[in-house]
Design a protein that fits this description.
Number of helices: 4
Low-confidence stretches: 245-255
Order of helices and strands: EHEEEEHEEEEHEEEEHEEE
Structural class: alpha+beta
Shape: globular
Helix content: 10-25%
Length: 255
Amino acid sequence: MTIRWTYAFADRPADRLGAAQAFWTAVTDTRLSAPRGTDGEFTTLLPVAAADACVKVQGVGDGLGGAHLDLCAEDVAGLVRRARELGAEPVAEHEGWAVLRSPAGLLWCAVPWHGESVRPPVVAGSRLDQVSLDIPPSAYEAETVFWAELTGWELLTGSLPEFRVLRPPAGLPLRILLQRLAAEQPAAAHLDLACADIAATRARHEELGALHVADGRHWTVLRDPAGGVYCLTGRDPETGGLPAVTARAAHPPRP
């Protein structure tokens, strides 16, 4: 079962969807697709450059939202079947795609591949290239095995003991970071950007309405204008790795 492409979703409150769309199109140098869904809750961020999209924004009815992954395959039914064998639970079946829940409780979607193959470029020294899965200690090992087996990607140790990285094959747009939380709490997810210069990227994001939350060892935590937490990490935007250590990941604890 081959994952042919991936999408990162920024899930934000429906009543702040416009603010989320404006912010994320600005920081990724993209334009909005036409809205989709019963209530117009789905939009894709379409690259201005000649590339394929890999980021979408969704309006959600409950809570502050977070992030989730869409995995694209030619055989969606096969992907769903394999996920269930590995411990995923079905949540909703749609025509041609499905919503599932990982063993730790994270929602994600299995969707058709439509031929996407060209990764969006680096924008102003940064690239949205990683979805962080923030996992409680009791579920961490099983969740790591689930995503590693499902994707078949290379599993790497991170820059700190609580991090592991699933590095996709060349050309795919998104890495998966598995973060072991310090305490038991519900699993969650958020977006990470790799930045050549965190300070410069932070200044640009703050001009667009982001708020500073915290700083870490080689990362900065921000909150976007729709209330969603995300991170700027000191990684090479081209390779995704730490400077001179391209096989490692940089990431903060979830605030």
